[in-house]
Amino acid sequence: MKLDAAILENDHVRLEPLLETHREALRDLAAEEALWALTTIRGDGENFDPWFNLMLANHAKGLQISHAVIDRQTGEIVGHSAFLSIFPDHQRLEIGWTWYGPQARGTKINPASKRLLLGRAFDAGAKRVELKTHGLNQRSQNAMLKMGATREGVLRQHTKTWRGDWRDTVFFSVLDSEWPSVRDGLDARLQA
Q1: 119 Cβ partners below 8 Å, 6+ apart?
Q2: What is the pLDDT of residues 28-82, one digit of tens each?
Q3: Where are the domains of the chain?
Q4: Measured between alpha carbons, how far is residue 99 from residues 86, 105, 150 in Å?
Q5: Which CATH superfamily is domain 8-191 in?
Q6: What's this model's pTM, rounded to 2 decimal places?
Q7: CB-based burial of residue 84 (10 Å sphere; 0-12 exposed, 13-18 middle, 19+ buried)?
Q8: Is residue 89 a contact partner of residue 71, using CB atoms and an 8 Å limit?
């Protein structure tokens, strides 16, 4: 598996590898405190610069490929998503750190972004793409199921949150053999 940073684009979104120039637009979106309620690290207010710096640092180290998500209709940055836990030898990676501003939620932004990210991962040779979320994040779990990902199970007390409590983590995945069906489902949603 060979995965490099690249601009990904379709009719609905443009995913640009994260750069310093995206900082201020994402800062405004990240100011919503509720956005970080179920995350492991916090990125609102005074926590934004450390979060953004971590995204850039992990990107520079090759640990992840972060993207600014841009709405093609408005040209505005509406969120963030990344390739994480990239294991080329095992042909596996995770899509995560996905969040959107309120104007993008419930629109075609997320399925369009996932269509691009999953397509890029499988084109790069991935056999497995993982997605995970907080056990209390029902909206995210519903989105993964609607996308066609398989719910694999729950790892109890898996990760400590920024508040110091323990999160149960729900794992989902899409395998390369499942990708054509998931792709077709996403394409149908985007064309509706």
Answers
A1: 183
A2: 999 998 888 888 888 888 999 999 999 999 999 989 999 999 999 999 999 999 9
A3: 8-191
A4: 20, 9, 20
A5: Gcn5-related N-acetyltransferase (GNAT) (3.40.630.30)
A6: 0.94
A7: middle
A8: no
